[in-house]
From TrEMBL:
Region of interest (Disordered), ranges: 260-284
InterPro entries on file: ConA-like_dom_sf (IPR013320), TSPN-like_N (IPR048287)
GO CC term (a single one): collagen trimer
Boundaries of every Thrombospondin-like N-terminal domain copy: 36-224
This protein's name: Collagen alpha-1(XV) chain
Leader sequence residues: 1-19
Superkingdom of the organism of origin: Eukaryota
UniProtKB keywords: Collagen, Repeat, Signal
Length: 284
């Protein structure tokens, strides 16, 4: 299958992709299937009110987000128009028990979350629900949860991965596959409204649910099988903090994710985030 994907990608450089070839990807463009989308590009540099530079895991830089942060961007500057099968990877450290939206793509009226991750406490327990919201704003009047999973309450770093297939959602907690649920996606292909907004650590001025904490990594991948590559690492240690397991990866693995950088240790160091995705005018 991977060979077929590669050959199709190479052939698309010189000729249009046919409708039958697009059928392999559920209607997504082949370039979107191979692309990765860094949602943290919505954060402006230098940062605005409520956003600070802090140390991430193993000293790598990250974004500290306070309750007054207002991070948003037109979704089209970062995300594709359509999604069928994809993977979302988020590495975050919650700062409060209240949780909140790690990210959301919201309709132009700011009333419906079309796609988002919502972290919220479960009453009278030491657990959280992490919910993937997947809503057709054209037909639904309220947010629709596609899949929800329980994780232990923690203020430590956690890596949350949602692998979204046509009829399944696979959840990984700190790169450990913990649960698979059967789902019925309505619609099968999610198409964002052209005027939708991407929010980070909130769901807009009406729904709010602001997330307070630290954001290290937040990407969406058009290829759901990226999980195999991303999580094919050897854990060198497992520490217990706040009654939650935290997987610590080898330094070489972090360098693979964030680039080989040397932190000066100054508070003003900028987090290393991916450059904007190039305009798809070719394969060069």
């Amino acid at each position: 299958m991977l060979l077929v994907l590669l050959l199709l990608w190479l052939s698309s450089c010189s000729q249009p992709v046919t409708s039958s070839e697009l059928g392999l990807f559920g209607g997504q463009g082949i370039r979107d299937v191979f692309a990765e989308f860094d949602l943290l590009l919505a954060i402006k540099i230098p940062p605005e009110d409520g956003i600070t530079f802090v140390d991430g895991s193993d000293g790598f830089p990250a974004f500290g987000v306070a309750s007054n942060a207002d991070i948003k961007s037109p979704y089209r500057t970062i995300l594709p128009e359509k999604l069928t099968e994809f993977t979302i990877i988020a590495t975050v450290r919650p700062g409060t028990r209240s949780g909140g939206y790690i990210f959301s793509v919201v309709n132009p009226l700011d009333t419906i979350v079309q796609l988002g991750l919502l972290l919220e406490p479960i009453a009278a327990t030491d657990q959280w629900n992490i919910t993937l919201i997947y809503t057709d704003a054209a037909t639904q009047r309220s947010n629709q949860p596609l899949a929800s999973f329980q994780i232990p309450y923690t203020k430590s770093w956690i890596k949350l991965i949602f692998k979204v297939l046509n009829n399944q959602v696979v959840f990984y907690n700190n790169c450990v596959e913990t649960e698979t649920v059967t789902v019925k996606k309505e619609p099968r292909m999610l198409i964002f409204d052209a005027a939708s907004t991407l929010y980070i650590a909130q769901a807009g001025s009406i729904m709010r649910r602001n997330f307070e904490g630290t954001l290290l990594f937040l990407k969406l991948y058009g290829n759901p099988e990226i999980v195999k590559t991303h999580c094919n690492r050897t854990a060198t240690d497992v520490m217990q903090e706040d009654d939650a397991s935290v997987v610590i990866y080898e330094e070489d693995d972090e360098n693979e994710l964030f680039g080989n950088i040397e932190s000066s240790g100054d508070d003003g160091d900028f987090p290393m985030i991916s450059p904007p995705q190039p305009e798809y005018g070719g394969c060069g």
